[in-house]
Amino acid sequence: MRSAPDRKAGSAKTTPRPHSTTSLVLLDSGEVWTNSLLIAEKFGKRHDNVLQAIERVECSTEFRRLNFQGATYLDDQGKARPMCRISRDGFSFLAMGFTGRIAAEWKEKFIAAFNHLETELLRATARRLSSDWQEARQLGKLDRRELTDAVQALCERAHERGDSTTPVDRWMMNATRAVTVALFQTNGERIQAIRDRLTARQLRRLALAEQTYADEIENFLDSDLHHRSINEQAKVCIEEFAAATGGRQVPGVDRRPARLSGFIDVEMATLLALGVLWAWAVIVTTGGAA
After folding, report:
1. pLDDT on residue 10
2. What backbone torsions phi and psi does residue 232 show, to the nearest 5 degrees?
3. Minimal CA–CA distance to 98: which of 147, 132, 53?
4. pLDDT digit string (tens) for 63-80?
5. Is residue 186 scored above 60 in pLDDT?
6. Residues pairing with 148 in the sheet
7. Mean of pLDDT values over 228-246
8. Which residues make Cβ contacts (< 8 Å) with residue 261, sequence separation at least 6?
9. What gap in Å lies between CA 290 and CA 287, rounded to an integer?
10. Contact at 8 Å (CB) between 194 and 180?
C-alpha cells in the first residue's frame, strides 16, 4: 500500500482553514503551494476523497515527499484536521484524474495562479538585490524596533494592571497584522509572505505606518485609557494613514504615481506632509522638550 502524506503530530504545519475567497495558491517559506482543501472546494469534491486520491497517485516515494506534504488545519470548532500541501508538480499529477468541462476550467485557473505567483516571487527576489530595496528594508527595521518597543510597553502596562495575561509575542503579531491588512490586499495569504514581496516604495510606506502605530501607542501610555482603547485608537490612525497614502495596495506592485512639478509623486508628497504634521504634533504635545 502506498504511504499517505505524513500527518504525525508535531511534524506537520498547522494552517488556518482557507475560505472561498482565498487565493488558489499560497506563498509559504519561499515556495508556491496549494492544498487539498482548496482543491476539494474548487473542484466540488469531498475533502476526504481528495486525500484518498493523493494516496493513490502513481509516483515515486521521492516525488511524493517533495510534492505532497502533510499538514493540518483548524476546523470551525478549532480542532486540528489533516490536509495536504501540494506543489505545482503535485497538482499536475493529481489533477490528471479530474475530468469534465468544469474540472478543465479549474485546472487552467490553478495553473495560471501558479504561474502568476511564481513570476511575482522571481520579481521579488530580483528586487531584493537592488540597493534601493536593501536601504528601504534597513530603514524599516529601525521603525519596526520602535513598534516592538511600544507594543511591549503597552503589554507590560496591561500585565501590571491585571488587564491581560496575553504574551507579548501575540500582541506583536496582532499589531503586525493590523498594519499589514490596513495597507495591503492580503487575500488570505500569510502576513510574512506578503511583506517579503513588497517593493522599496511599499517598504518605506510600511515603515512610516509602523512608526505611526508606535507613536500613537506611546502618546497614551501614561493615560488612564484601557489597553484595548489604545490599540483601537492606533488602528484608527493606521486606517487614516492608509487612506491618505493610496489605500490597500497589491503587494509587490507599484502603481504609476501622479507627478507634482515633475519631481515628486503625489504619494510621496503625502507621506512627507504627514511626517511633518506628526513631527509638529509631537512638539506640541511635549511642549517643545527635546
Report:
1. 36
2. -65, -40
3. 53
4. 999 999 999 988 888 889
5. yes
6. none
7. 94
8. none
9. 9
10. yes
DSSP string, the chain: -PPPPP--TTTSEEEEPP-TTS-SSEEETTEEEEEHHHHHHHTT--HHHHHHHHHT----HHHHHHHEEEEEEE-TTS-EEEEEEE-HHHHHHHHTT--SHHHHHHHHHHHHHHHHHHHHHHHHHHHTTSHHHHHHHHHHHHHHHHHHHHHHHHHHHHHHHTS----HHHHHHHHHHHHHHHHB--TT--HHHHHHT--HHHHHHHHHHHHHHHHHHHHHTTSS--HHHHHHHHHHHHHHHHHHTTSSBPTT------EETTTEEHHHHHHHHHHHHHHHHHHHHHTT--
Task: Scan for cell 493523493, then name that residue.
Answer: 54
* pLDDT at site 254: 78
d(CA 155, CA 162): 11
Mean pLDDT, rounded, for 278-287: 51
197 — pLDDT class (breaks 50, 70, 90)? confident
pTM of the predicted structure, to 2 decimals: 0.56
Half-sphere exposure of 284 (CA within 13 A, CB side): 6
> 149: Cβ–Cβ under 8 A, 6 or more apart, which residues?
214
- Spatial CA neighbour of 32 closest among 83, 75, 90: 90
Buried b (16+ CB within 10 A) or exposed e, 166-176: eebeebbeebb
Confidence of residue 270 (pLDDT cuts 50, 70, 90): low
- Cα separation, 252 vs 230, whole angstroms: 31
220-231 pLDDT per residue, tens: 999 999 999 999
Q: DSSP per residue over 41-73, as a string?
A: HHTT--HHHHHHHHHT----HHHHHHHEEEEEE
